[in-house]
Design brief:
It contains nine helices and 18 strands. With about 375 residues, the protein is an alpha/beta fold.
């Protein structure tokens, strides 16, 4: 079977790219999306901050204009304007895409496992899907395996960031709907929780840590001891989880003459936070723009070297002084307004904002980390 465009994997990057293609003049091309499972019960949530319109504004499940930071030394609620913090449910994203696919004249959804490599074959690429050969002029591969990372002693390869969450429901009002908790470091220096209140009686409680330790006990302790919900007063309605690779290793975008890596496979996750949704949206627009303008997908903006270096310094700190990360984040949130922090994390901060943010940190920690990083690279 032959197509113009093939997307392997219907995670955030595959869905975002498919949406951009179907919203562009390329919607008349033959397009196939391949996903491992035909699930109609997608419990994933995609949470992000933004100050711009996104293609999925109509799908936003909850939107907030404030957020809370908590640590043993600081408990602060910050105004986000002009940013907003949003969450989109995976099932709504899937339903939206399937609706758009049904309107497109030559778009298809296929279920199955792509085994082996995607290979170039002249003016197209090809791969095997459940015993069938699929060919496409351009293939976008979002499949990510930790084993694909190239280990380099000059780079950081931290234990994977592991996240696991519960959607908690109560019979009484228990959550402040107006204010999500973005970082709660009161439990541990290198482990934090966040809470997204969907309404007064239902919230996503997420546990994020840097090692693959069981989260059941930590989540239960946080819900009962910190949020103050006694055992038996709440129910766990759904669970979600996953991992992110925290590394400053380079990722290849061009996997072949006709194959492009997207999403995590293409290095779109920010190495120090694991956030990727708005970066993926920007990348999807750039890919479609490149296809329209140049006839190929590879003319996408490279990452700014300064931010790659700053992420490497932060990973050095996390690896060597993880016990000080809660204190470092505390000072950043104490001395900076939220928009400055979010522009920095989005890699859009001005030079003045960068100087002010770096100046708000305990300077000895990042300075020593930068020196160690320089020696590592040399």
């Amino acid at each position: 079977m032959r197509y113009d465009l093939a997307i392997v994997g219907a995670g955030a990057s595959g869905l975002a790219l498919a949406h951009e293609l179907l919203a562009s003049p390329l919607r008349d091309r033959s397009i196939v999306i391949v996903e491992r499972d035909a699930t109609d019960d997608d419990q994933r949530t995609f949470s992000y901050w933004t100050e711009r319109a996104t293609p999925f504004d109509d799908l936003v499940h909850r939107r907030w204009d404030r957020l809370r930071f908590a640590s043993p030394w600081l408990d602060r609620t910050l105004a986000l304007a002009p940013f907003r913090y949003e969450t989109v449910r995976g099932i709504h994203l899937l339903e939206h895409l399937r609706t758009e696919l049904a309107k497109a004249p030559r778009a298809e959804w296929k279920t199955g496992v792509v085994r082996g490599a995607i290979e170039d074959a002249g003016d197209h690429a090809r791969f095997e899907l459940e015993g069938r050969t699929i060919e496409a002029r351009w293939v976008f591969d979002s499949r990510f395996r930790h084993a694909d990372l190239q280990v380099d002693p000059r780079r950081h390869h931290l234990m994977h960031q592991v996240f696991e969450g519960w959607i908690v429901e109560t019979d009484h009002d228990a959550f402040d709907v107006a204010v999500p908790t973005m970082f709660d470091f009161r439990d541990h220096d290198m482990r934090f929780f966040y809470v997204l209140p969907y309404d007064a009686r239902r919230a996503l409680v997420e546990h994020v840590r840097m090692r693959p330790e069981p989260a059941e006990r930590a989540l239960r302790s946080y819900v009962e001891d910190v949020l103050g919900l006694p055992s038996g007063s709440y129910r766990v309605r759904a669970r979600e989880g996953g991992t992110s690779a925290l590394t400053d290793a380079p990722f290849e975008r061009r996997l072949g003459a006709r194959v492009m890596a997207i999403g995590r496979r293409g290095g779109l996750l920010k190495p120090t936070t694991g956030y990727a949704f708005t970066r993926i949206l920007d990348d999807s627009r750039a890919i479609v723009r490149s296809l329209e303008t140049h006839g190929h997908p590879f003319d996408v903006p490279p990452r700014r070297r300064l931010y790659a270096w700053l992420d490497a310094v932060m990973l050095e700190l996390m690896q060597t002084r993880g016990d000080r990360m809660a204190r470092l984040f505390t000072e950043m949130f104490r001395r900076n307004p939220a928009p400055r922090l979010l522009r920095f994390l989005d890699e859009r901060a001005s030079w003045r904002e960068l100087a002010m943010l770096v100046g708000s940190m305990p300077i000895g920690l990042p300075l020593m980390a930068a020196m160690r990083l320089t020696m590592r690279r040399l």
